[in-house]
Design brief:
Elements: H1 17-29, H2 33-38, H3 40-53, H4 57-64, H5 69-82, H6 90-96, H7 101-112, H8 116-135, H9 139-145, H10 151-162, H11 166-174
Helix pairs in contact: 1-3, 6-7, 8-9, 8-11, 9-10
């Protein structure tokens, strides 16, 4: 049974012949280090140009534009990924985006499908997971390293997101 229109998963844009040709030229030039160095950047620029002119180009240009709400949210997302361990509140993020808190919340959720605090929580939990799995940190050390003030709260939210406790997840991932 097909999904209702509002629930449909967006499809990728069709691969046009000019875009396909540019991608093939790029792949061919990568066979030679000299061609890759001299011609590669030109082919990459051509691919970017063709994508921006394509079916989804307007949305991509808007996302890259500095002064659109997409560009403002993009800067906030970058800030969150760099400063996830700091105390962050929605009002300061809204000021950074030059939006009212309600407009910021609405536009942030339109771009990420999460509220700003839910997004920050997912970033923190993902970073903590990497610390435990890759660096061997304990759950409480990882919790404090990513900005949690309470290890039990961290454990509850971790289990809610990943389905297992932080310690279990780290053991499973390492084995």
């Amino acid at each position: 049974m097909p999904l209702p229109v509002e629930c449909e998963i967006p499809r990728a844009s069709p691969l046009t012949q000019p875009l396909r040709d540019a991608a093939v030229r790029l792949l061919d030039c990568l066979k030679s280090p000299t061609d890759a160095k001299v011609l590669g950047p030109q082919f990459v620029r051509e691919i970017v140009c063709r994508v921006l002119q394509g079916e989804r180009g307007e949305a991509l240009r808007a996302l890259a534009a500095t002064y659109t709400h997409f560009g403002r949210i993009s800067r906030v997302l970058d800030h969150l990924h760099r400063n996830y361990a700091e105390a962050i509140d929605v009002e300061s993020l809204a000021r950074q985006a030059k939006m009212s808190p309600s407009t910021f919340h609405q536009r942030f959720k339109a771009v990420t499908a999460l509220s700003p605090l839910q997004y920050l929580k997912s970033v923190r939990l993902g970073k903590a997971r990497l610390l435990m799995i890759q660096d061997g940190c304990t759950a409480s050390a990882a919790a404090y390293a990513v900005g949690y003030e309470s290890a039990p709260q961290f454990s509850r939210e971790y289990k809610r997101l990943f389905g297992v406790s932080p310690g279990q997840d780290a053991r499973l991932a390492r084995s």
